[in-house]
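Subgroup meeting minutes
Present: P.N., E.W., G.H.
Scribe: E.W.

1. P.N. recapped why we're keeping a running log of single-chain structure predictions: easier to compare across weeks, and new members can see raw inputs and outputs side by side.
2. G.H. added today's entry (336 aa).
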Amino acid sequence: MALQHVWLRRGAAAWALRPVAWLFGLLAALRRAFFALGWLQREGVPVPVVVVGNVVAGGAGKTPVVMAITRHFQARGMTVGIVSRGHGRSTDDCREVHDDSDPREVGDEPALLRRATGAPVFVARRRVEAARALLARHPGVRLIVSDDGLQHLALRRDVEICVFDDRGIGNGWLLPAGPLREPWPRACDLVLHTGGRAGTSATRAIPGFGARRALADHALRSDGTAVPLADLRGLPLVAVAAIAKPEGFFSMLRARGLEPTACMALPDHADFAGWTPPTTIAGETYPSVVCTEKDAVKLWRRWPDALAVPLVFEPEPAFFEALDAKLSSVDGFQAA
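Output recorded in log:
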């Protein structure tokens, strides 16, 4: 978290890390050159591939974008598959994500993507391996969306989408002096801003499409039933989040009229193995626990009564129009 503050400006700490950033930049440039020269091989699959990634370290909202894109094409009758590395998982193999998969073994984001979209999802260290395994198991898939992977150059892609949140590019320097995984600007097909403060100086500097994001007006139980958020107003609540920016979730709860008595932030991708909510709060025994959908796929295994509040994420229509236009020129793309 300390580095996040360092990355916002070009202060003394950032300058002290500049020599390491130069070395990081040199190694990254050599790797890109090796792929460009053919010394390292890009591998493709027989269906179009859309990569959703970012150039900034840390969560920028890629998973909601993958979800929105998948649902967009599913609504048009297409069978879409999703591949991911499965960040933070305890396994290292290539495997399919099922409805009952343990998030600790497949990753919390792939587990959420499977639950939220119903699409086939595979995880592997090498995304091309995941894509090939997915197509072998689900030959009817006509489009693959990669959750992250902008820097995973071994997978040939047809459309690259770069995602930014309200931080923009921070101080504009490479890791570890700044937040950038690679220099910006860099070539990509589409830019999408996922933050809630469109029009800030950080986002104005990076032209792209915007999106609407807010919490839904209901929470979900582990059995899928919905609870109106209005029914939770005035109740003692414990809000917990193990995401990149937990305070954002807490603020969105307040914007929906909820006032959590306790807000508990855990490290991103925490598995909740040793976490327990307070047993008493505001005089109430066993208060309600509210969390994000990403956290719920892990928390429900320990606390099935936890309530997950979905994120409503809607890219502007022009984004999908531009994406459709990009894919329409790709060989093998067949829109339903």
